[in-house]
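Marked as duplicate of an earlier ticket. Keeping the data here for the record.
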Amino acid sequence: MNDQQKIVTNPSTDARQGDIVAPSKDKGWFYTDAVKSHFFHPQNFLEDEAAYKDASLGLVGSPACGDSMKVWLHIEKDANGVERIKEFKWKTFGCASAIASTSMLSVMVTENGGLSLNNALTLRPQDIMERLGGLPARKIHCSVLGDKALRAAINDYFRKTGQHNRIIVEQGRIIDNVVKVTDHDIEEAVLEGADTLEKVQQKTKVGTGDPSCLPEVEQLIRFYKEKYFG
């Protein structure tokens, strides 16, 4: 049994060593019932990758440095010619929030006959968190990974079906023209816990090439902190 399967199929063992169970009433934090349900009983988890070798594939993150998600989509046209997600299978390497976020996302895009691709592309991390009843602040980046994995899989479908004009390119506005740091790089750093200029610089090196951008960087940090953490 590999690490991914262990995390998913034996969650109760890991839970008592991680952050599902608070050590006391005044320490730690608890997950919502929805998060715990999707962690202990994940939906649409993929056991056999070989069975989905022809599915559209999306992969984000890296097990070497943190959470990663791998998703497979089966997309079909309905009677009106609308492309809908009929199946969403996944594997996730990560914590309870990462597993629960991917499991919930798999339900959201396949329920009620399947979400149309146009609507799926508008899903936001906040939508996943709302269905989960919220996530601890330091775990919000887990729902962002699910959002990106879904878009990556849809892009793979567009490539396989020759719809290259529909591929969504993740772009960002360059903030530091010397080291080529974008606003998306700063956003990801904040989501990963960098809540000060110094911490963002440690992750991105922004401002080391062009110090004149630092006031804008500080504005972006405040904006993303308010957007994701309130």
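See parent ticket for discussion. The chain has ten helices and five strands.
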